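Good morning N.,

You mentioned wanting to compare the apo and holo forms, so I went ahead and generated the holo version with 5,10-Methenyltetrahydrofolate. This is what I fed in:
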Amino acid sequence: MSAKVIDGKAIAETLRARIAIEAAKLIKDHGVTPGLTVVIVGDDPASQVYVRSKVKQTAEAGLNSTEHKLPADTSEADLLALIAKLNADPSVHGILVQLPLPKQIDAERVIQAIDPAKDVDGFHPINVGRLNAGLDSLVPCTPQGCVLLAKTIHPDLTGMNAVVLGRSNIVGKPVAALLIQESATVTIAHSKTRDLKQVCRAADLLVVAVGRPEMVKGDWIKPGATVIDVGINRVPGAEGKTRLVGDVDYAEAAEVAGAITPVPGGVGPMTIACLLANTLKAAALAAGHEPPKF
Ligand SMILES: Nc1nc(=O)c2c([nH]1)NC[C@@H]1CN(c3ccc(C(=O)N[C@@H](CCC(=O)O)C(=O)O)cc3)C=[N+]21
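and this is what came out, ligand included:
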């Protein structure tokens, strides 16, 4: 069997086109241009690639974007001062502080300093709590992208056995919260789970976010299951180059699964599209308007 490939790149493009239409409406009808500010501390080259594509796609969707690049030795106090300034700036609707941060900065303190209404990553404890309480909130981008991709295969997730492999605050836990909201039956599995392979094999929907290259093999997957691979791992490739692989052994999994997301071109592009959607939502709410639903 050969799995259907879930084309995250194309699905994200369609979503960004819809965001552009809604952003144009907000600008025309209400005179508000959604604005995203990305803050990057240090010069990790991989981080800079993400930031560049975020900034480019933000502009293409008709949103304003600004970027603050701070030196790697920036103090926590200086970063907190910048966040206070951005919180107070009415032209800034979304603030994203690129993670990970250098070790002299406490990331948790930084996240908690962001105005929850501008927290387009959905990492602030207020948004975490609201998501888990089933209240409206800014929802983390990658988890939102995972669920949107799963719904292209299963428009109704009700009653499905979903297994989330990974329990991080940025992907595993929020993806599980969203799947519960979709009425799936959710198991969160992780490195300490007993019989991990068998637990995964029970999944109709398997979301993998562990950060271990190609850890999930073909025989971990129920025949016909839908597999969402959140991993983006750079590994040595041919001729001294590097290549990107997911947390799932794609070649093996594609023989067993019913549908699967590739890496690259799966969850990654959806993360950025959902960031734009969150920025639009934050801008609409700040202006007292009903935000569009995607
Ligand atoms: N506060 C914060 N929020 C984030 O959302 C955040 C972050 N920090 N730190 C870094 C990670 C990583 N991340 C990615 C987003 C899109 C792609 C993406 O679009 N990847 C493409 C291409 C990858 C490539 O070719 O290098 C793909 O998967 O097809 C990847 C990675 C967001 N992150």
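The chain has ten helices and eleven strands.

Happy to go through it together on a call whenever suits you.

Best,
F.
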